[in-house]
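Summary of Year 1 activities. Much of the first year was spent building the evaluation harness for sequence design. The harness presents a backbone, in tokenized form, and records the residue chosen at every position. We chose the following record to illustrate the format because it has been used consistently in internal testing since the harness was completed.
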């Protein structure tokens, strides 16, 4: 079952063995575990892991001189020491499924941007899966460099349920900038487990755009770790679930040094009998004075059968900081629906306008025009699926 290969370096094989040992020794989480209180893994079949194939990955974008943008498994042969220096060195997750990914990943993306190089055009990776897949993305942005990276996960309906496991890690150097956009539109037979994190150096700037529109179960954890003074991050999370879907989103901001800033905005819509849970945690260490950190989560329910939970939190050990959170969960405003219907719109079109308006404050923050369009197109598609009872 191990993902070991004879031509892989010994340190990576050791990492894989340790990952499989951690996975095998960790029980499958239940709703008695705090991190899974509102997420049930009933029906998850570990036999899915055996039926796996490499994801098909299409890379697009023009790279500047010195920029490396290639499949991670191929990069190992040419850039082993660089990969060894960074891979999984910043992770804060202790999770059964992250351990499994460590053991089994067999494809992914490696992006390296040298010092002071500004990549002018967005770089993108399209992941297409037809069976259970395990991917890993490693991005290194050196001091003073900048890049806009977009990834998208998609799949066609399959006869059996499958698993998608993806880990993405980003290291942003001093005075460097990076935008990371992730878009997921997997079919409803997919169990999706995704872990993404970034580590920020001094005065680094980072933007997360996370879009979740598919999967039977989609569990996404996103960590931002502030290791350099003056660093800042902005996170936009957008999710939409309909009948038969459960979405589990976690955003964590870990401030370890002084003078860092963070903004998180997560907005979701649940329709049919779809369910979701959002967890957001701001953690500020004692040394992280002058931190300014805020998170907001808003969830709109389109059906009386839809269910959503919002769990924001603060852990603060410093005394000179600004830190707060806000959360709302509520039904669609019937007065707004009535107002639009009174002007001739059918109910579903009225709901569409309200939902687009609800998402607009988040989606409008996404700098990449093409990605903004993909988000709004997916909102429309999900609304149509809900109307058709799909």
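For this record, the design step produced the sequence shown next.
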């Amino acid at each position: 079952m191990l993902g070991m290969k004879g031509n892989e370096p010994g340190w990576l094989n050791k990492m894989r063995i340790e990952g499989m040992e951690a996975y095998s020794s960790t029980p499958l989480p239940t709703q008695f575990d705090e991190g899974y209180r509102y997420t049930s893994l009933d029906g998850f079949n570990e036999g899915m892991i055996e039926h796996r194939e490499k994801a098909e990955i299409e890379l697009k974008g023009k790279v500047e001189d010195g920029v490396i943008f290639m499949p991670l498994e191929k990069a190992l042969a040419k850039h082993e020491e660089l990969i060894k220096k960074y891979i999984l060195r910043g992770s804060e997750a202790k999770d059964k499924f992250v351990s499994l990914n460590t053991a089994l990943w067999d494809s992914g993306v490696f992006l390296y941007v040298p010092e002071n190089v500004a990549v002018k055009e967005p770089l993108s990776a399209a992941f297409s899966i037809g069976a259970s897949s395990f991917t890993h993305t490693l991005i290194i942005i050196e001091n003073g460099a900048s890049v806009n990276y977009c990834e998208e996960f998609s799949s066609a309906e399959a006869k059996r349920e499958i698993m998608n496991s993806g880990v993405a890690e980003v290291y942003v150097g001093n005075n460097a900038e990076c935008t990371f956009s992730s878009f997921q539109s997997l079919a409803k037979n997919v169990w999706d487990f995704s872990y993404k994190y970034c580590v920020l150096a001094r005065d680094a700037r980072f933007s997360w755009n996370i879009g979740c529109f598919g999967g039977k179960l989609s569990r996404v954890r996103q960590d931002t770790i502030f290791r350099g003074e003056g660093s800042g991050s902005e996170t936009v999370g957008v999710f939409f679930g309909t009948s038969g879907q459960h979405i589990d989103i976690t955003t964590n901001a870990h401030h370890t040094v002084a003078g860092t800033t963070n903004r998180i905005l997560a907005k979701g819509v649940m329709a049919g009998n779809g369910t979701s849970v959002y967890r957001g945690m701001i953690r500020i260490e004692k040394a992280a004075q002058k931190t300014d950190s805020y998170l907001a989560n808003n969830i709109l329910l389109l059906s009386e059968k839809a269910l959503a939970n919002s769990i924001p939190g603060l852990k603060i050990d410093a005394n000179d900081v600004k830190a707060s959170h806000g959360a709302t969960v509520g039904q669609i405003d019937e007065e707004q629906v009535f107002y639009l219907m009174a002007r001739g719109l059918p109910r579903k079109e009225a709901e569409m306008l309200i939902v687009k308006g609800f998402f607009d404050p988040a989606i409008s923050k996404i700098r990449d025009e093409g990605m903004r369009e993909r988000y709004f197109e997916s909102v429309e598609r999900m609304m149509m699926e809900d109307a058709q009872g799909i």
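Residues 10-331 form one domain. Quantitative recovery figures across the full test set are reported in Table 2.
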